[in-house]
Write a structure and sequence with these properties.
The chain is of the alpha+beta class and about 240 residues long. It has four helices and twelve strands; from the N terminus they run ββαβαββββββββαβα.
Length: about 240
């Protein structure tokens, strides 16, 4: 396993893995239990949005996962200031991942008061419980003939082709997304100068919505898959 790129909420790595297993892990990202706002009790709402619309928008706000959060945790929001009401105005036992998510707007003299409660759920039940995304593609091997036209460099959208010793070479194969633009360029000019071949390795990318660290999502998805496989094994052995 080799890390390719790591940002705050994104991780890409190279790994030799069967595509079936990678797809199973991808699907089990939505089997990780996540807390999200499930019920909203609105006592005052003078904003231009219906209660149901505000409740729906609040439910989709990602909340930072913490050991102290449970189904008794409550968040309160009370605002009477003119302007946009943001997620940072919540107070209580949990914090939103992003503070500047707009909820609604208030004019002068208008008010919004509500209490929100949590529920644990999975992304397979509702998208508000989803911790993030996982996707993957094959890593490739690129073979280039000596007679390859240097003009093919301009055809590559990823800009991974360059010239070295008056020959076209690959600067970074990992960035190749198998678009085949270079292959099609050569074919139009009657040549078969470039071949893109899939390898046994996968480029896996994980993105977190912020509730959990991106590395934790991958680990928990694997754990959830292991638990289900173990349960199936037990039932078969009976």
């Amino acid at each position: 396993m080799k890390t390719i790129n790591k940002k705050n909420e994104q991780l890409s790595f190279l790994i030799e893995m069967d595509e079936g297993l990678a797809n199973a892990i991808r699907r089990y990202v939505n089997q990780i239990p996540i807390f999200a706002i499930d019920e909203v009790e609105i006592s005052k709402n003078d904003s231009p949005l219906y209660d149901e619309t505000i409740a729906h928008r609040i439910g989709l706000i990602p909340i930072k996962m913490d050991k102290t959060i449970n189904e008794k945790t409550k968040l309160k929001l009370s605002s009477s200031e003119e302007g946009i009401v943001y997620s940072k105005e919540f107070s209580g036992g949990a914090k939103p991942v992003y503070e500047n998510i707009p909820i609604t707007s208030l004019a002068k003299g208008q008010e919004l008061e509500l209490v929100a409660t949590f529920k644990s759920g999975k992304g397979s039940e509702h998208s508000k419980f989803s911790p993030g995304l996982m996707f993957y593609r094959n890593a490739v091997e690129i073979k280039i003939d000596k007679d390859c036209s240097q003009k093919v460099i301009e055809a590559c959208p990823q800009k991974i082709l360059t010239i070295e010793n008056n020959k076209v070479v690959v600067d970074d194969e990992i960035k190749c997304d198998f678009c085949n633009a270079c292959v099609e360029f050569c074919a139009k000019h009657g040549k078969d100068s470039i071949k893109i071949l899939p390898t046994k390795e996968l480029v896996v990318t994980l993105e977190s919505f912020g509730q959990l660290p991106v590395e934790e999502i991958f680990k928990r998805a694997i754990d959830a898959l292991k638990d289900d496989v173990a349960n199936v094994s037990k039932k078969i052995s009976k």
